[in-house]
User: Which sequence fits this backbone?
């Protein structure tokens, strides 16, 4: 991958990262306002939970989404690090180049499409075991 293309992808990653971080911050506020922040250092867990269960469900939904976002943020950070150390675009599993089309669609991926499908199969097997 040439430097200009990588620069473009880096910009995309950085924009995506900023976007996700603001979403995560927003959701953290929402979760706190619902009052089921499990990390509440005052230990007031549940103090503000309304009697109707919908707030709890909403908080759980937000927690799940923000966990997904955190996970994605980790992948973006790792991709930015690989750009720094010059290993970006190389599959972490087999060491072959990751297709440029794949990187353009998902700039944060760490594996080529073959390894990704193997990893997903392994994860599915473990999940089913
Ligand atoms: Zn691979």
Assistant:
């Amino acid at each position: 991958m040439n430097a200009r293309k990588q620069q473009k992808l880096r910009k995309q990653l950085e924009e995506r990262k900023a976007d996700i971080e603001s979403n995560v911050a927003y959701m953290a506020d929402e979760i706190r306002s619902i009052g089921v922040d499990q990390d509440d250092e005052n230990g007031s867990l549940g103090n503000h939970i309304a009697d109707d269960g919908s707030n709890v469900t909403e908080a759980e939904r937000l927690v799940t989404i923000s966990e997904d976002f955190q996970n994605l943020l980790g992948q973006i950070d790792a991709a930015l690090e690989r750009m720094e150390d010059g290993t970006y675009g190389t599959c972490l599993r087999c060491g072959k180049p990751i297709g440029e089309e794949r990187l353009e669609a998902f700039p944060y991926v760490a594996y080529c499409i073959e390894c990704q499908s193997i990893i997903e199969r392994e994860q599915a097997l473990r999940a089913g075991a």
